[in-house]
Write the structure tokens for this entry.
Amino acid sequence: MTAPIDIDRLEAEVRGALERRELEQLRALLAATYPPDVADVIDRLDDDDQIAVFRLLQPEQAAEVLDETSLDATRELISELTAAEAADILEELDSDDAAAILTEDVPERQQALLDAMDPADAADVRALLRYPPQSAGRLVNDYFVAVRPEMSCAQALDELRAIVHDSAVIVYLYVVEEGGRLVGTLSLRNLLVVPPTQLVRDLMRPNPIAVAPEADQEEVARIVSRYDLAAVPVVRADGSMLGVVTVDDVLDILVEESTEDVLRFGGASAGQPDETYFTVPIRTAVQRRLPWLLLLFVGGSLTANVLGMFESELEKMVALTFYVPLLIGTGGNTGAQTVSTLIRALALGEVRLRDAWRVVGREVLAGLVLGLLLGIVAFGKVLVDGQIFVLAGAVALSVVAICVWANVIGALVPMAARRMNVDPALVSAPMITTLVDATGLAIYLLIAGAMLNL
Amino acid sequence: MTAPIDIDRLEAEVRGALERRELEQLRALLAATYPPDVADVIDRLDDDDQIAVFRLLQPEQAAEVLDETSLDATRELISELTAAEAADILEELDSDDAAAILTEDVPERQQALLDAMDPADAADVRALLRYPPQSAGRLVNDYFVAVRPEMSCAQALDELRAIVHDSAVIVYLYVVEEGGRLVGTLSLRNLLVVPPTQLVRDLMRPNPIAVAPEADQEEVARIVSRYDLAAVPVVRADGSMLGVVTVDDVLDILVEESTEDVLRFGGASAGQPDETYFTVPIRTAVQRRLPWLLLLFVGGSLTANVLGMFESELEKMVALTFYVPLLIGTGGNTGAQTVSTLIRALALGEVRLRDAWRVVGREVLAGLVLGLLLGIVAFGKVLVDGQIFVLAGAVALSVVAICVWANVIGALVPMAARRMNVDPALVSAPMITTLVDATGLAIYLLIAGAMLNL
């Protein structure tokens, strides 16, 4: 058994071998190491060492490593290679992976490298690039086994043996009619346990689940995970099969999407798929962030009007002001907790729309308890600050009211979004904070005004 | 080709058939429908119809449907079945899925149902339950094919044919020595293309990647997605093989984790895996939320001290107060955008620690541009409120300074976390908001004090 590898140790071994110029030993060490681990070590090396290590790899492993290195390292490695060398390596990759490198990592050399590639491989890559970014068409792997319904199972197995591409993990065979229409799937495992003379037609599962080349990759991921597939066929509008999207690509999509959810929750929108942090022009980054900030700013500027309405109270007692940021901050924090809990519960199907009132009841109760506990702390804090007893009471009571209110808002907004068929995950923490700010202020100043007779 | 099914239409068909009592037609319709789709329709029906539809399913499909229905529906269906009926259905499921239903959906009937199950199946489930929740041991599927290194490839294929469990998608065979130690893996596809007399020993990939039964499910997902595996073997400390975790379980884990990231970013922590929104006692929910709120409250109470330091300025001009919530709110929103962008960039490897100063430079520039644009709006807002020109200038200048400052904080905090080997995803929006609140206030009041000669 090989436990997850110790990258620090591998890095030290590689550096040591480089220093002692033990290139043959290093070559053997690298050949015995999984490509993602080699890629991690290369990511950590200086530019000169990166290319030195990379040149020791066999072509097929080099391709897999290049597919796994970080953007910086991939660019650096390709820049050190001649177009012919780089093209040889790209040819070893599945066309979807080669297309991803050419569009995301070295877009400026895309044409030159495609021209240097074997024409057939280049044509495969160019075919993928015709589909929009983040679509199923961009992820298509065309190493799949197609069989005819009238074949025997023995003939189907012969078809499988004729496919030479080694890296394809084949779980299903695809049953395709004369004319190219996909009509069924066959699991390799089932094929092995039936009599060889049985017809494919009688063994296949009809009505295969498939996606269109234009389908968004998120939709592809949803289907693969919903139906527990190892690969999903991509089928054109005329019913003919373009290829398959395999589950390893779906895993990558889900990892990517999960960071997009955080981005969204922080009130920033994800950009184009080919972009990375440093490749987005600042102008573009600002353009994307501004509308959202502006909207929140306009919503937030209501707080100035609320405070303006209480000008005379604030003049009579300036100390009222001191607790404004603390109170609205606490409301925002409580609301952010509730909204993230609800987004998750809705996404996992733990809560449905018809549960709305149960949810509100629960959150009111939780807000009450949290508010009472924080209210006690707030009471002490105001007294320690040297303020009068009644002000301490007003702040404490406001904490309770604001916690309850923020919990209700944090529960209702994502449910309202679901009701209006908007993805609840689009509700962000800043949105809730801004909603709670102005209303929380009014609650505080009304309570304080009444208690202090201002 | 079957496109993703139209659940609304399927629901209408099922309801129609139920109403017209066309049970035989309904049985045929259900048999031709994929289990997740049947489960979705059942989720939408009333309790009586749910069980009526469920009873029309064949045992194997019933099991798969029960595995996919929502918590509420699963509980309802099981409560309508006798222990013997429910046990029959659970026996059809892989033991990891049966264990999940018994612990998450009907924990109160766990013992009774296990006692009613076939002793061998029950023993398999009980074995899984010995491992901690969310560990690899809980996800183990024991339908795998073990072969000996000294077998021929033809013999290995015979072993595969002897495994009768139909639902197992088999991609790899596992090579196990006398004594039970896992020594290699064999892809089914490779096995089919070599001469039947070749020895397993010579074809297998040695040093297989494996995980321990105690490994956290997140670690399992990371390994499966890192090495693009279709299944990962779970190996005990003595090297013997317990079973495999298949990629469909990993997909489910990733979907679950992605909602956990949002939860964390909102400042709420995920609970135990067996819990759902409604099954967590409110007392527990409050206990989990309180420490974090309390910490933020104590941090946030600094704002009261900052405001107290500027008491005389605030007394001279109460209107200063009006813009406090707006300014610190804007700082919080800007900071939340930056921090979520950085968390993503760090997670995807687009930004590394050595890029820190480039990142700060970029965020200062972006903050400056965003601040200037928002500052213009702020300037107008203050004038519209009827305040003096110099106050409008002070607020506008503060917006610029606070946007820059919030961007720097939002960029540096996740990088500092990475530096200290803390997961940057643990940095939450409320944390940044609270950090920016007190400092943003001080910036505003210093600028305003200087400009207004207070």
